[in-house]
Input
Amino acid sequence: MLIMKNVSKVYQTEMVQTHALRDFDLEVKEGEFIAVTGPSGSGKTTFLNIAGMLEPYTSGEYLLDDVNVGGLSDNQRADLRNQKIGFIFQGFNLIPDLNLYENVEVPLRYRGIRAAERKKRIESCLEQVGLGSRAKHLPQQLSGGQQQRVAIARALAGEPRFLLADEPTGNLDSLMARQVMELLEQINRDGATIVMVTHDPELARRAPRNIQIVDGQVADLTLYQGVAGQTDRQVVGG
Amino acid sequence: MFLHYIDLGWRSLRRTPLVSFLMVLAIALGIGITMTSLSVYHMMSMDPIEHKSSRLFHPQLQTMDDGEDTWSEDNLPYQLTYQDAKNLAEAPFPQYKAAMLRTGFTVHMDNSEIRPFIQNTRVTHSDFFTLFDLSFIYGSAWTQEQADAASPVAVISEELNQKLFGGENSVGRQINLDDTSFRIVGVIAPWQTHMKFYDVNNGAFNSQESIYIPFSLIAAMDINTWGNSNGWKFENIRSMKDKRQSEIFWLQFWVQLEDEAAVSQYGDYLMSYMAEQQNFGRFNREQLEYGLRDVNAWLDYRNVVSEDNEVLVALSFMFLAVCLANILGLLLAKFMRRAPEVGVRRALGASKRQVFLQHIIEVSMLGLIGGLMGIGIAQLGLWGVRLTQEYYSPLATMDLTMLLSAPVIAISACVIAGLYPAWLVCRTTPATYLKTQ
Output
């Protein structure tokens, strides 16, 4: 599904070169649920942004579904992102002027899906996250946990095969965090591949595969088996 | 997607009502001022007789002796002498031609209900009505016999007919011009142009005359011009007869020439006419010279639309540019504030092109609203111009072309102002803002 070989990301200013990722190697198989941990500034978010094609990498090779991302134009990357990747952010990143229905609709519009099909998917996704009756509400009328569930519904609406979550429970209390985690596990069981960046060791332990990033490199792999029904998963390190 | 972008644009304008209002106001003011000056310029520079302006020509003859100067750019007199105008009008070629001058009379009726008033009058040949495509509501032009006999007959305008006869068919009725009673032979429909292009001497945008009488009456009634008379040498003028025989320029002359061959043929004719006149001691020059300009070339030659108007239009466009600079600043601030939302949209699959298009459509909407408001401001401006002088009344209006141009100019201007901010916002790296939302 995802293969990164020797991927590096260097942020260059006039005075300083900062290596956010160095010779980063990782392979993610279809259907995996991976927790990415590491200290602040280790390169977790940079990895996630590169995986989601939200920013370019400096060197190396990145294949997503056998497509070499480095050779794609902006439009092709946008299409690929829209077709295959769903995002869940720590800050929810809902558009404040749009109601829940319209927020979930955003990726579907860019994909050019017809109105009737969009409606079906949006209603189904909002139902799935338990907010079917709140479709006309604005994001600011919801709690943090509910907003994150909307963000998950938005990510799911495009039926992505690959879900990237950047500290999805970072702004939530423990109860809501647990609910969101259960939702992600359900989504993973339904077939989506999930890569989740988290600071929370408890949440990380619930993921079948853990990756630790330290100084821009994969430092450690840990397999937690027997959690969230993922006992039969084979672990592939990078 | 286009309708969706319109929806997003509308929401965005409503989200920041004050900024949106300021931007709309800026574009409306810019467009209002620009369209006011542009409308006047447009009306002034409009072809006054579009369907045949390239076939109507005003001849000029270089009558002055060698070494004499006049103030035209090519040193050719603007007008003709009476004798040349009369001779050219009586020539067999071309078919349609008319000499003319502006004069005026006190108009009074035999009844006392209408108070006497002074009215501009054009003295001309009957071809005048054919040359300038004037249509008759009642009657027709005077006949050749009436012209030859210098009969006191007149064609009047529909407006004057309304004033004197309540709009009835007045053919055969009498009006008194000074001391002479004239019989009305025709009533013409209003002119289709705002410009008095056939005689620009005393203001090209004054109203056309309301009374037209035969050219032969100039001699019969000793009619003098109310327009310009220009002499270039000392002549002892003691009577109107002296003036008619003088070298003073005081008449206009128009001919209709159908094609280039006719123009060339008429040029040859003018040269042979001047050579012939040299036998009578006139045209004392080594090099004979004539001018033959069609309507638009004539108006250009006579500087009907002065440079002042062009400067005014240029200044108003500069004002629009200042408004646009303000809009650009506001758009830049507004769009960059929205960069986090753009980051989300990019993460969710929007391409740079889609983001760019969304913002360009938003600024186009701004332009459309500003343009429509600008039309209102332009109407106020034109109303103000009309109030200053009656002379501007027919000019200070917006025709359909200008009405349609206003939103087009406004939208184009806004798109130009919005290009940089839209380009900047679509170039933002989405990842930069996703954490900071």
